[in-house]
């Protein structure tokens, strides 16, 4: 008899995909059923997600998954964090969800900090300051007609799950990125919600990874041609939470770089670190699966490269990634360096121009070619990984013996080698589809196909998925230490 097949819906900033996995106690086989573009849409000042287009992509994906698998044993959804849709009293969506890169969110930071100081905010929520955290997004919409009419706030994966099943909930790993969850009790912080003048009723009951959300509605079964019932299980609905489940670590002495549009660099802990030092270093305490804490820092990530490629395409320049990476590998190291987390790099737009401006302002000759720009990005990211892996270890007291680099960046051999050199640690690269794998592992366990804790789930990953080992180049340390000293840490 065929093994059960689970569908993982995994939405990223530039594309969504529906993957199908066959799962058994010693089997984990993932295939892609459908991939579709995710194109943010700007109207006036507002930058939106086309959430109905995404939902249509999910339905297409489930249809394709059903064709491939015959019958689906379950569905789980993960996506990027912080963004949400508002539903009115009739259950209708109020406007399109805003994109976290919409620059207007940041305008509310002073007002929030006036109501609850940054240090207190950190002690309560444990979240690193990012100007687009949901708490600031909501403050920027205070007094708006939409917020006034809203009955429910659903984070993006919860909104899609709601359309698929009818259920309303807030999956806790993603809820932990709002800035409104209490880092210690792991419940909504009603204190913060009230002090910020937000209606309590907006926030739905929390659900935990592994909980049953519901099952696909009859209309969804009809539209996708799937045979019911198909349960929908809550997974680590924050893609980074699922990606960390998907890290094939053999013990707890590892750091991870979840490397896609963003690079999330950190360690897995049992308890949050809420010290002032941790706040000043920009570390976050997001919740992970099985009560873990994802103690990490956001690094701007491959966005810098993706956005450079988009700029080059628009200018009719070559933008093929393998060619660019091969050329970047021939550029001498450390020709230029930027702080990837400089806020100027956050919005969409001409990235090479912003990198050049940063170099000029810091007394460096700007990159003279596309290859030099790419090399600048990769060297700068690797240096940021070095800083943050070390700092995560130091601030948490966790000893780190290797770095797992998962997500799309694991395909980038140059970046993986630079990461090993910069960190002075072995890097295990892969799986590329860590988020989708973490998603299906949690579903399969929730439905009794697998058992055990994260160590058992990761043992299955190690037995079934390939990882590529990169060892640090001998004698690389001195050069990285010198570069680290040359580009002072702004924090
Ligand atoms: C990665 C990610 C990060 C989050 C950012 C914005 O895809 O989910 O963890 O900080 O997107 O939501």
TrEMBL record:
Keywords: ATP-binding, Disulfide bond, Kinase, Nucleotide-binding, Rhamnose metabolism, Transferase. It comes from Blastococcus deserti. Residues 255-445 form the Carbohydrate kinase FGGY C-terminal domain. This is Rhamnulokinase family protein. Residues 8-246 form the Carbohydrate kinase FGGY N-terminal domain. It is an enzyme of class 2 (transferase). InterPro entries: ATPase_NBD (IPR043129), FGGY_C (IPR018485), FGGY_N (IPR018484), Rhamnulokinase (IPR013449). Pfam families: FGGY_C, FGGY_N. It comes from the Bacteria. GO terms for molecular function: transferase activity. Its EC number is 2.7.1.-. Belongs to the FGGY kinase family.
């Amino acid at each position: 008899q065929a093994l059960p097949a689970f569908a993982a819906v995994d939405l990223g900033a530039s594309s969504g995909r529906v993957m199908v996995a066959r799962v058994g106690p010693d089997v984990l086989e993932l295939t892609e059923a459908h991939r579709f573009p995710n194109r943010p849409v700007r109207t006036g000042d507002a930058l939106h997600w086309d959430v109905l287009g995404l939902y249509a992509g999910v339905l297409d994906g489930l249809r394709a998954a059903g064709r491939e698998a015959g019958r689906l044993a379950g569905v789980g959804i993960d996506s990027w964090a912080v963004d949400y849709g508002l539903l009115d009293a009739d259950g209708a969506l109020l406007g399109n969800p805003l994109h976290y890169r919409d620059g207007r969110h940041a305008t509310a930071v002073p007002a929030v900090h006036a109501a609850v100081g940054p240090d207190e905010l950190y002690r309560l929520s444990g979240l690193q300051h990012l100007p687009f955290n949901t708490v600031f997004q909501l403050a920027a919409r205070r007094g708006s007609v939409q917020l006034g009419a809203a009955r429910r706030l659903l984070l993006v994966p919860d909104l899609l799950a709601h359309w698929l099943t009818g259920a309303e909930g807030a999956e806790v790993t993603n809820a932990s990125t709002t800035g409104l969850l209490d880092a210690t009790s792991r419940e909504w912080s009603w204190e913060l919600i009230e002090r910020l003048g937000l209606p309590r009723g907006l926030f739905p009951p929390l659900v935990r990874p592994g909980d049953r959300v519901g099952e696909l509605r009859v209309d969804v079964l009809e539209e996708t041609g799937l045979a019911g019932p198909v349960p929908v299980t809550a997974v680590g609905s924050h893609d980074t939470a699922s990606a960390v489940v998907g890290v094939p670590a053999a013990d707890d002495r590892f750091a991870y770089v979840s490397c896609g549009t963003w690079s999330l660099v950190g360690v897995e802990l049992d308890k949050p670190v809420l010290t002032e030092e941790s706040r000043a270093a920009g570390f976050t305490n997001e919740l992970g699966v099985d009560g873990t804490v994802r103690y990490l820092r956001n690094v701007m990530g491959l966005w810098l490269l993706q956005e450079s490629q988009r700029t080059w395409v628009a200018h009719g320049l070559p933008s093929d990634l393998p060619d660019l990476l091969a050329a970047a590998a021939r550029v001498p190291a450390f020709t230029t360096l930027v702080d990837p987390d400089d806020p100027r790099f956050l919005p969409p737009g001409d990235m090479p121009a912003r990198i050049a401006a940063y170099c000029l302002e810091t007394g460096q000759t700007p990159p003279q070619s596309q290859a030099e720009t790419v090399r600048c990005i990769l060297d700068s990211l690797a240096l940021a990984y070095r800083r943050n892996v070390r700092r995560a270890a130091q601030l948490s007291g966790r000893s780190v013996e290797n770095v797992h680099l998962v997500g799309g960046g694991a395909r980038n051999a140059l970046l993986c080698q630079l990461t090993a050199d910069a960190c002075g640690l072995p890097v295990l690269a892969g799986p590329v589809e860590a988020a989708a794998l973490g998603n299906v592992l949690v579903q399969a366990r929730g439905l009794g196909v697998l058992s055990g804790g994260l160590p058992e789930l990761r043992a299955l990953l190690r037995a079934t998925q390939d990882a590529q080992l990169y060892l640090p180049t001998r004698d690389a340390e001195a050069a990285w230490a010198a570069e680290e000293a040359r580009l002072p840490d702004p924090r």
